[in-house]
Specification:
By secondary structure, the protein is of the alpha/beta class. The protein contains 14 helices and 12 strands. 41% of the residues lie in helices and 15% in strands. Bound molecules: pyridoxal-5'-phosphate (PLP).
C-alpha cells in the first residue's frame, strides 16, 4: 500500500529514534529539561522571535495564539478553509470567545485589499471589533500553497494600519520556506505569533512550537499549563524535534519534487490535476471530473493499492508526499492511480492483482 493520505503518518527514522533514546531529560514543567530548552531556543531564532514554547500539538499552538492576541467578543479574520477555523473544533469560540470571519479565497491566500474589506468599521458599536488576522502558510485547505513573502508583507502592513494583531499558522512553514527559498524567520517576524508543527513534513512523532515576544510567550506558558499541555520529561520528543531541524528540513525539497513528479505523471495519464496548484507536497485531484464522488474514488484507490484522502473541497482528493514515500513509490503510484480511477483492471507488472491492504 502506498500511503499518500497526509504527511502526519510518518514513522520516526532509526536515527531519530536513536536521538530520542539518547535525550537528556528533566521536568519540563519546572523548566528543567535541557533538551526542551535547547529546542525552544533554537526555534525562537528559526521563527524570528525572542522566545518559543514547546507544545504537544499545532492545534494547541494556534489556540494559545488566539487567546493571547484577543479578548472575548473580538473578531478574527482568516483565509478561506483555514485550519484553525474549520478543523480545530470551534476552538476560537470555545477557548477565546471569538467570532471568526473567513475571507473567501481560491487557495487560502488573500490580498491586503480583501483584508481591508473584511475589517469591521472600528467605530461601529454594533459589530465585534476586528482584532486579529491569521495567515496559514503553507495553506493546507488550499492545497499546500505558499504565500509569497511580498504578499505576506502587504497583508501584515494592512493589519498594522488597522491596529490588528497577526498570527501565522505555520504548521508547514518550513515547506513554505524551502519552496520559496525564504528563511522561515523572514516570514515569522512579520507576525506577532507563529506556530510550527514538528509532526508533519519534519517527521517527528509529535510536538509543535509557538513563538513570539518574551511577554507573549510568558502568557503562552501559562496557557499551555492551563490547557493541560505542560509536560514532564518532554525532552524525549524535543530530541526528535532537534534531530528533525538538523536533518529533515532541506529534504522537504525531495517531498516537493516527488509531488511535482506525481502531478506531472498524473496529467500525462489524463488525470484531472492542475499543475499550477502544486507548490509543495500536496497534489489535488478532482474526482468529479472523472464522474466520481470522493468516497467512491478513495475506495477504488484503496482497492488499487494507494491511499489518498479528501481535500477540503467537495469531491477533490489529495495526495501528500512525505518522508516515508520514495521516488520509486511515486512511480508505482503513477501506475496505480489512473488504473484505479478509470476502472481498468487492477493488475501489477506481472499481471497479478496486488493485495489491496
Ligand atoms: C495548517 C495546519 N495547522 C494546524 C494543524 C494542527 O496540527 P496538530 O494535528 O499538530 O494539532 C494542522 C494539521 O493538519 C494543519 O494542517
Amino acid at each position: 500500500m502506498i500511503d499518500l493520505r497526509t504527511d502526519t503518518i510518518t514513522q520516526p527514522t532509526a536515527a531519530m529514534r536513536k536521538a530520542i533514546a539518547e535525550a537528556v531529560v528533566g521536568d519540563e514543567q519546572k523548566r528543567e529539561d535541557p533538551t526542551v530548552i535547547a529546542l525552544e531556543e533554537r526555534s525562537a531564532v528559526l521563527l524570528g522571535h525572542e522566545e518559543a514554547v514547546f507544545l504537544p500539538t499545532a492545534t494547541m499552538a494556534n489556540q494559545i495564539a488566539l487567546r493571547i492576541l484577543t479578548e472575548p467578543g473580538d473578531e478574527a479574520i482568516v483565509g478561506g478553509d483555514a485550519h484553525l477555523f474549520l478543523h480545530e473544533l470551534g476552538g476560537p469560540a470555545v477557548h477565546s470567545g471569538l467570532v471568526v470571519k473567513s475571507i473567501e479565497t481560491v487557495d487560502g491566500r488573500f490580498s491586503s485589499a480583501q483584508l481591508r474589506e473584511a475589517v469591521n468599521p472600528p467605530a461601529d458599536l454594533h459589530m465585534a471589533p476586528t482584532r486579529l488576522v491569521c495567515v496559514e502558510n503553507t495553506h493546507n485547505g488550499g492545497g499546500g500553497r505558499v504565500w509569497p513573502l511580498e504578499q505576506v508583507r502587504e497583508v501584515t502592513a494592512e493589519a498594522r494600519r488597522f491596529g490588528l494583531a497577526t498570527h501565522l499558522d505555520g504548521a508547514r512553514l518550513l515547506n513554505a520556506a524551502v519552496a520559496a527559498g525564504v528563511a522561515p524567520a523572514e516570514y515569522g517576524r512579520e507576525f506577532d505569533t507563529v506556530s510550527l508543527c514538528l509532526s508533519k513534513g519534519l517527521g517527528c512523532p509529535l510536538g509543535a512550537l509557538i513563538a513570539g515576544s518574551r511577554e507573549r510567550m510568558a502568557k503562552a506558558r501559562r496557557l499551555k499549563h492551563l490547557f493541560g499541555g505542560a509536560m514532564r520529561q518532554a525532552g524525549i520528543v524535543a530530541a526528535a524535534g532537534l534531530y528533525a531541524l538538523d536533518n529533515h528540513v532541506e529534504r522537504l525539497a525531495d517531498d516537493h519534487a516527488n509531488a511535482r513528479r506525481l502531478a506531472e505523471g498524473l496529467v500525462e495519464a489524463g488525470m484531472p490535476v492542475d499543475l499550477e496548484q502544486v507548490e509543495t507536497n500536496f497534489v489535488q485531484l478532482d474526482a468529479a471530473v472523472l464522474g466520481l464522488g470522493a468516497d467512491d474514488a478513495v475506495a477504488r484507490l484503496r482497492a488499487g493499492g494507494v491511499l489518498l484522502s479528501f481535500a477540503t473541497r467537495k469531491d477533490v482528493l489529495r495526495a501528500v508526499t512525505h518522508l516515508d514515500v520514495s521516488a520509486e513509490d511515486i512511480e508505482e503510484a503513477l501506475a496505480r492511480i489512473p488504473r484505479a480511477l478509470t476502472g481498468a483492471p487492477v493488475v501489477d507488472a506481472a499481471g497479478a492483482a496486488p493485495t489491496p491492504y
